Fold this protein.
Amino acid sequence: MFDGAHSLELDPQERRARLRLARSARIGPVTFHEAIAHFGSARAACTRMAACPDADIDREEAKLTRAGGQFLVAGDPAYPAALAAVPGAPSALSAVGDLTLLGRPTLAVVGARDASLAGRRFAAELAATLGAAGFVIASGLARGIDASAHEAALATGTVAVLAGGIDQIYPPQNADLHDRIAAQGLILSESPWGTPPVARAFPRRNRIVSGLSAGVIVIEAAAKSGSLITAQRAAEQGREVFVVPGSPMDPRYAGSNGLIRDGAILVRDANDILDVLGRPSVPTQPLGRKGQNQLDGDTAKVLEALGAVPTAVDELVRRCQVSAAAVAEVLLALELEGRLERHRGNRVSLM
């Protein structure tokens, strides 16, 4: 484990030796740190261990430089201090983008890939509000919650951590977002250039997302969601775990609600997070039935019957005791306002 707050540059030969160790087969982060502690330096370790050839480092560094990036090695001044304090911290990271973001307080936002519109909207609102409050938003560039959080935090600062090599854009539909984060934010990867994002790499990626952050915010985690791994890593690292609750009838929240049951901090808006972190509260706009007290007639009846749990349109007609045409008109208006989500089986829910 290294202190990431170094003010002195590493000796160039020692830094190169650390890169060779970091890219060596069968030398993971724990062995990397143990080897340096045992032999006194990475240079000494390289003379006693099967280290990666210099030529391999030259080739990877040339590709990274052409992409506008650079290596961050454990012990570099720019290596993030919060991550450096985590046991088994990455030996080296590839980075493309604004390294100054690593010196700012960070929060992670993670959640379902197949998230609801309401979940994505909540992720975006939280990320934007927390970004305006001074936090960088970290996530894993996945579909759904991750992408929504990154999009909302582009203007204030966002860090995307990849499971594969820094040149491996995954999922492909996030290629444009990847490029915008590289230009306006920061992309990080522990994996060597060209490494595909295989399944076992995602839990390793998740420990970096949580390790960079003061806390992890979980939105829409199902019972076996990968977001639960990130939450577990956060707890092991001494980070706060914040969770947005959901209906017990919605399987997308089974894991989230379980985290709350086990002691995670329930989140209703950004101030629930800021209060725990000792930051000033900010104005927030409650989500849900906006302006309902100003509504009357059929619209008020339909809104009263709608909730986060999908409801069949036929059931709405029966419950509201209004015509099917009137219900359809209200639902269309809500959908055009971005307040309604449609589901399979002619079911709808309120965002």
